[in-house]
Write a structure and sequence with these properties.
The chain is mainly beta. It folds into two domains: 22-104, Transthyretin/hydroxyisourate hydrolase domain (Immunoglobulin-like, Sandwich), CATH 2.60.40; 124-224 and 232-313 and 326-397 and 406-779, TonB-dependent receptor, beta-barrel domain (Maltoporin, Chain A, Beta Barrel).
Length: 792
């Protein structure tokens, strides 16, 4: 540790000061005597009013400015819509802690018509256990869907709907703190427009207030919040083309007046996609070659309506409802050849896989928040209800071989109730305690009606048909303590979860009961090291529960010799995770991490040599170990018109498990590189180029070769920045997924390809009042259950 710190000091030209440093602290309130959040606090030199340091007030209106030499100072408080306030000059002695008088802000008598902000948020911000990626200003990601925007996250790769962070799966995806498992994952990644997203939080070490779900880290997607007074909103439309045309349009409007806040949004998305899957596999002395093309043509719509009302300065209530639906026609075609040992063709056939998938989801939530006093005591309660209904019909027809046609009908009904209560209590000047409880109920009714075409009519396939009912109840409680003083920030938490589930196969009259109780500790510390350099350390114990649909014992065919099936005997995986970070100006610089996972949930392939059939399923591998580090560096030093970042991650991955009658033991070092370059061009044009590289790695029993991609885009704003035009190209340079499986009787070569390049054009128009007003954010009760209802 000392050697690392010494090296950083030499490189950055930093030194430790032997002089005792002073501290200035205080609190700011608004005109209603409520804590004033995110107010600029400027420390000025009393002699010439030069700015010495600047801080923001926290959620309690408090601030601290540390590391100050002795001298004469004064304070200035600035906030949009508030009049500037100054303190009288004061003297700070060496090592003294000075408490400034309580400052009360008042609304400015005359509002500014326009506000020009020249500073931009950095793309990356590192906090204890959390990396923030500010993607709102991104050009290449904002013109596509969520899957395009996730490429902005360092080390994130999305292949075949599987999200990997530096090669690691088990990533939990939240939207505004709420899980996404009431939707299927294809709709989330492909059909949700990216231009509604402000930032992405990569929470590698979630605290006790979060659900313990997510062993690969938590990706929290924060939507843009309209925090303006009066009536305002935006309209957006876009189109793109790869192999198929894509269209999207959405609009949102917000009305704020006094205690009332109304918001509404509508959207339509025709985010088409095309995927290719090539598989060569050896069965005995024969070679099976399978070539699959799968285009998707979804038509998706969504709407949301929300209301907040302040009963008083201390009490707020709110409710929101949303509705989404999608119709998707997939017309897949699979060509198969079977060759003998000499390379001669033994058989060849073509399979048409036609899927008609329709789903709709409804979500309702209500909440209450009570700010008990100005010290920061707060009580909040939250209720969420989610309903997901799916209707899917798959027709499989084969030409050129003696296989019966098949039909699968798979209706699904998912209902989730979740209740949560949280309490915050300050303990003196620097400490804050939190406690809370949560209870959730999930009820799933899934059915597979399988039919086979015989002698000119459809007969029930009783061997595959099934109805699976799944009930789960999770009770949780947590306590945590947080410390904040200057640049020191620490938290310690403990969460307890009691999960009871019952999976019942109606057709087989078989029941699987599970009862799981566990404590989940978490710890994080962030502190200054020297000058602009800081450090943080974090630890958490996490759980990844199986997705609900992975537990369904259903079989879904791709062609007569390839299918997927569920595994009702899956167990949760448990992970110990630790991380150490160095930061420069609170931006990530260097990270080290270590993860140990037991019962790792992994998708695998298996093969039956007697029939030649292969299938994908999900199993538990006994142990997974991952450790390594990452290095980040800014690009601002190149030229004043250039900004961005680059970095690299190097991780060791190892799987050890007793699997298929033998010991599976494979390891691999994996290198991930990423670069984002932003350039300011003449005529107020901004250009962005992004690239990523992921080296050889392991995905369970599958090893894969390096893959990489390059995107680029330009942006121009018009009419006082109200009109924004973006043009981008995704996958200008692209190497796809090449993997292989060599274990026991399996010898597979797999290639996965997708549309590239894709050109996108997006236009956004902002309208209405542009005066700013602060807003508050919160998390819904349903944080884990809806994500687990996703389909793969």
């Amino acid at each position: 540790m000392k050697q690392i710190a010494l090296l950083v000091f030499v490189l950055c030209g930093l030194g430790l000061s032997a002089t005792a440093q002073g501290l200035v602290r205080g609190q700011v309130t608004d005109e209603n005597n409520q804590p004033a959040e995110f107010i600029n606090v400027l420390l000025l030199a009393a002699a010439d009013s030069a700015v010495v340091k600047m801080e923001l007030t926290d959620s309690r209106g408090r601030y601290e400015i540390a590391g100050l030499p002795a001298g004469q100072y004064r304070l200035q408080f600035m906030g949009l819509s508030y009049a500037d306030v100054f303190t009288e000059p004061f003297a700070l002695q060496e090592g003294e802690t000075y408490t400034a008088p309580l400052m009360k802000l008042t609304i400015a008598a005359q509002m500014l018509q326009t506000v020009e902000v020249s500073a931009r948020r950095p793309l990356l911000e590192q906090q204890a256990g959390k990396l923030i990626v500010n993607v709102e200003q991104s050009i290449t990601g904002q013109t596509g869907s969520v899957v395009d925007l996730l490429k902005k996250v360092p080390g994130m790769v999305v292949v075949n709907d599987q999200v990997r962070m530096a090669g690691r799966q088990g990533v939990t995806i939240l939207i505004d703190g709420r899980p996404t498992n009431y939707m299927d994952v294809q709709s989330l990644l492909r059909e949700m427009p990216a231009n509604n997203i402000a930032r992405i939080e990569v929470i590698s070490q979630p605290g006790a207030a979060f659900d313990a779900e997510g062993t690969g880290g938590v990706i929290n997607i924060i939507l843009k919040k309209n925090a303006l007074l009066g009536a305002n909103g935006q309209l957006s439309a876009g189109a793109g083309y790869g192999e198929l045309w894509k269209y999207r349009a959405n609009g949102s409007v917000t009305y704020r007046n006094g205690p009332l806040n109304l918001s509404a949004s509508l959207g339509y998305n025709h985010r088409t996609w095309v995927e290719y899957l090539d598989v060569d596999r050896v069965v005995g002395d024969q070679l099976y070659q399978q070539r699959n093309r799968e285009p998707g043509v979804p038509h998706s719509g969504s709407g949301r309506l929300g209301i907040d009302y302040d009963l008083s300065a201390a009490h707020r209530i709110g409710a929101a409802g949303s509705y989404s639906r999608s119709n998707n026609e997939v017309r897949g075609q699979n060509g198969s050849r079977i060759l003998d040992a000499s390379g001669q063709e033994v058989a060849a056939f073509t399979t048409n896989n036609n899927q008609d998938r329709r789903w709709q989801s409804q979500n309702a939530e209500a909440y209450y928040r009570w700010k008990i006093d100005t010290s920061g005591r707060e009580l909040s309660a939250d209720y969420s209800y989610a309903y997901f209904l799916r209707s899917a019909v798959t027709n499989l027809s084969t030409i050129g071989a003696d296989f019966n046609n098949r039909r699968n009908e798979e209706p699904a009904d998912t209902r989730i109730h979740s209740y949560k209560i949280d309490y915050k209590h300050p303990l003196g000047q620097y400490w804050r305690a939190e406690a809370g409880a949560k209870y959730s109920q999930a009820r799933l009714d899934n059915e597979l009606a399988a039919s086979i075409f015989n002698n000119g009519e459809w007969d029930d396939d009783t061997g595959l048909s099934n109805r699976f009912l799944f009930d789960e109840n999770i009770a949780a409680a947590y306590v945590s303590a947080a410390f904040k003083k200057g640049d020191w920030d620490a938290s310690l938490g403990l969460r307890y979860e009691d999960a009871r589930s019952e999976g019942y196969s109606v057709t087989l009259d078989s029941t699987i009961n599970r009862h799981f109780q566990q404590l989940f500790p978490s710890l994080s510390i962030a502190a200054p090291l020297a000058g602009k350099l800081g450090w943080s350390v974090a630890y958490s114990y996490r759980i990844e529960r199986p997705r609900y649909y992975d537990l369904n014992p259903f079989v879904s065919y791709i062609d007569p010799l390839t299918f997927q099936k569920g595994n009702p005997f899956l167990r949760p995986e448990l992970t110990h995770s630790g991380q150490f970070s160095l930061t420069f100006e609170k931006q990530p610089f260097f990270n080290l991490s270590y993860d140990l996972t037991n019962h790792a949930i992994t998708q695998v392939t298996e093969q039956d040599d007697a029939t030649g059939a292969a299938f994908a399923t999900t199993v538990n591998l006994d142990r997974y170990v991952r450790y390594g580090g990452s290095l980040f560096f800014p690009l601002d030093f190149i030229h004043k018109s250039i900004s961005g970042y680059g970095g690299a991650m190097l991780f060791y991955n190892q799987y050890v498990s007793d699997y298929l009658g033998a010991e599976f033991n494979q390891d691999q070092w994996n290198l991930t590189g990423f670069l984002q370059l932003n350039v300011k061009l003449p005529a107020s044009i901004n250009m962005e180029i992004t690239g990523w590289y992921q080296g050889k790695g392991l995905d369970g029993i599958m090893a894969y070769d390096p893959l990489f991609g390059v995107d680029a885009g330009i942006e121009r704003k018009f009419l006082d920045d109200k009109l924004r035009v973006q043009l981008s190209a995704e996958g200008i340079i692209q190497r796809f997924w090449y993997g292989e499986v060599n274990y026991q009787n399996m010898n597979f070569d797999i290639v996965s390809r997708w549309e590239a390049p894709i050109v996108n054009l997006n236009v956004t128009w902002k309208f209405g009042n542009q005066y700013l007003k602060k807003d508050e954010s919160r998390r819904s009760a349903a944080e884990e259950e809806r994500r687990r209802a996703q389909e793969k």
